[in-house]
Amino acid sequence: xxxxxxxxxxxxxxxxxxxxxxxxxxxxxxxxxxxxxxxxxxxxxxxxxxxxxxxxxxxxxxxxxxxxxxxxxxxxxxxxxxxxxxxxxxxxxxxxxxxxxxxxxxxxxxxxxxxxxxxxxxxxxxxxxxxxxxxxxxxxxxxxxxxxxxxxxxxxxxxxxxxxxxxxxxxxxxxxxxxxxxxxxxxxxxxxxxxxxxxxxxxxxxxxxxxxxxxxxxxxxxxxxxxxxxxxxxxxxxxxxxxxxxxxxxxxxxxxxxxxxxxxxxxxxxxxxxxxxxxxxxxxxxxxxxxxxxxxxxxxxxxxxxxxxxxxxxxxxxxxxxxxxxxxxxxxxxxxxxxxxxxxxxxxxxxxxxxxxxxxxxxxxxxxxxxxxxxxxxxxxxxxxxxxxxxxxxxxxxxxxxxxxxxxxxxxxxxxxxxxxxxxxxxxxxxxxxxxxxxxxxxxxxxxxxxxxxxxxxxxxxxxxxxxxxxxxxxxxxxxxxxxxxxxxxxxxxxxxxxxxxxxxxxxxxxxxxxxxxxxxxxxxxxxxxxxxxxxxxxxxxxxxxxxxxxxxxxxxxxxxxxxxxxxxxxxxxxxxxxxxxxxxxxxxxxxxxxxxxxxxxxxxxxxxxxxxxxxxxxxxxxxxxxxxxxxxxxxxxxxxxxxxxxxxxxxxxxxxxxxxxxxxxxxxxxxxxxxxxxxxxxxxxxxxxxxxxxxxxxxxxxxxxxxxxxxxxxxxxxxxxxxxxxxxxxxxxxxxxxxxxxxxxxxxxxxxxxxxxxxxxxxxxxxxxxxxxxxxxxxxxxxxxxxxxxxxxxxxxxxxxxxxxxxxxxxxxxxxxxxxxxxxxxxxxxxxxxxxxxxxxxxxxxxxxxxxxxxxxxxxxxxxxxxxxxxxxxxxxxxxxxxxxxxxxxxxxxxxxxxxxxxxxxxxxx
Length: 911
Prior knowledge:
Blueprint: H1 10-14, H2 16-27, H3 46-57, H4 64-71, E1 95-98, H5 105-112, E2 117-122, H6 125-136, H7 141-158, H8 160-167, E3 172-180, E4 187-190, E5 195-200, E6 207-218, E7 221-228, H9 229-233, E8 243-245, E9 248-250, E10 257-258, E11 263-264, H10 281-297, H11 303-307, E12 311-320, E13 327-330, H12 333-346, H13 381-397, H14 403-421, E14 428-430, E15 435-437, E16 451-454, H15 464-478, E17 486-491, E18 503-508, H16 518-521, H17 523-529, H18 540-544, H19 555-559, H20 566-583, E19 584-594, H21 599-612, E20 615-624, E21 642-650, E22 655-657, H22 658-678, H23 686-700, E23 705-707, H24 713-741, H25 748-759, E24 769-770, H26 772-777, H27 786-791, E25 795-797, E26 802-804, H28 814-824, H29 827-830, H30 839-852, H31 857-867, H32 871-884, H33 892-899, H34 906-909
Parallel strand pairs: 1-2, 1-18, 2-17, 18-19, 22-23
Antiparallel strand pairs: 3-4, 3-12, 3-16, 5-6, 6-7, 8-9, 10-11, 12-13, 14-15, 19-21, 20-21, 24-26, 25-26
Helix pairs in contact: 2-3, 3-5, 6-14, 7-14, 7-15, 12-13, 13-14, 14-15, 14-17, 20-21, 21-24, 22-23, 22-24, 23-24, 28-30, 30-31, 30-32, 30-33, 32-33
């Protein structure tokens, strides 16, 4: 009989909140130092990688105190990743594989755990080089650190004269694009926001820096004036963003560009530029600049003709100093001259030292629609000149036959790449945090306004000097991770990967459909890296996209054969899971981190893992893996800062009727939920949904075939998930809550309202927001749609969002809550003319009565029983909320009153 592992046990489930807490800390202020070396997407917290890897190798009967001590969950004063695990050689006989290793969090922790052999593989050459730096090269120890410092200083010294000539004593510049107005013929800068620094001290204590730009018309040109409120008001802390002092009003102007709406306004004549979409005048002008930039470097036009383009880069202000202490100054004629003179100097640079390769010509690379079709066009002339000098220096260090020199060179190249992502036309200003938002801050390369250019030798985030410091700090951290593990780093497509022996555990972070188009966006690194370390391809996107497992619809336009579609993704992922099944020992585990909530993505995963490869799911856990403050986490309710850690085994067997399996799942899982409610251990959140979903999946996927399942292949899986798995998950939670509290909920609208209230976090003010994914996830029937929910008063919609029809959480006093409930009720109901269509409406009415006229509650319930069949279910909602709803929720108190904690209400009135 196959022995269960700790990761599959309920004991392990109980410490997930502790792992989650440490993972969240690690994605925030407790970040591992080596993460600052270079940016990579979707890096998993080291404590998650460590805990799940260890739990996948250990038997289920390992005492949890021993496990927590092993992975260092017992010391809360320091993030666990700062402490080496205590394993005493326990894992030296095992082999662990991560076939989608990325930046290497998972194999790094397998290495620290002392796993006998750790195999890390990735399709992309860029990821392969980074994996060598994270996993393999730290073996050279302190000598490597010293040599990286030595050669790093030489690298900085080699560009000193050029930097002085091109930047003078300036730390950097803020620039944007200026466009020749078609109405008045003058150039006007286009600025989306005029803030430079807006540093909030937090806790309502005001701002420690407030600095913005102010455009002033002077004849036919625009002067950009710097307004530093700390200096103007002679204050270290300023209370508000907009101030009036001594009769002077300080107000930040509005931007004059909004690209998504094809809106731009001339600051000189105040006219709006014509056109829309691709025919928008501004976009056409930027395309002309990019065409002329290339023609200029080819010697086809003069610098004067280049400067006469309808669009051109414009310096707004310059700055000196560091971080929050930056001082901003106006641009001078000498600054302008220095900037434009560098374009002539660029002609002297060896063309092989700068990236002339093409960017992917479709939607993934959004800057391509603006004419930035080649990588060199992402940079201005002096950036390219300095970068070429760095390439020159690094080329001299390269030695094909000296692996140690390759290691030193790799870390210097990483510092160089980190500088590049902070220093191009597609950076932007982040006034409230680090000032510079790097080029890869979004999932795609997007066109930006208000770019930042920095002196490579300055002491600011993103400079080459500071990037080198980060690399050294990261390397010092990494050499402490050395162990006796045998490390193997491979650069290979998973479908071409061959292993001499089967592995004990595969733990990986597989592709998430349309999450990040890795070949295209990481080419920003690749086209520079290949100029330092020989690489096999012109670009990654041109060579590797036919092999890449990802969704990007634009790919089909170039490569055909449905490349980049969900069908293509699904089939490639399925083949990959088939290979993983072949790599895995019969009693081994496959553990996947899955950070996607769309139904299509889930269909692809279940199709690949269960339908195609015959894996069965034995456990699912939810753990923080992403930064919840990032751009892509906004406007979602099933929080994407969580990954679903899914445990798979070989193999699903047998056949059973689908409806019987559904009943089995609901019965088994609802009993678990009920038990947790009765023990007071059920902490409701989005994690609860994920955990219950996993338990439901473990029942459905243990069977190879489900008789009665409609459709074939992906259609069958879609049918299973949408109409059986999601509804069974919801029903398990609802029945579990009902049994745990001692009531019955059968109405789909009541179930939906309960789920949203209990699983989506309570906002401090306003109401709970629901995204379209949640509309599907929380459906009891599988076909409850938005319009139906809206018509029945469960949700509301405006232009930008969908929200729950609940009282505003900002209401504090009883009269305020009553007023909020009145807004939810039909005016006729308030006058006694009942016309309720579901239990939620009855519940809101009873809340209103319970707060306004509690002594009339019995009378109203009796009246309602004669008019509607929804009374008992409305009372059931109240009892569930009285038991498990957030204590601060405005519906908690009326629910308590209705449910009768003093032997009134539901205890008296429920039949």
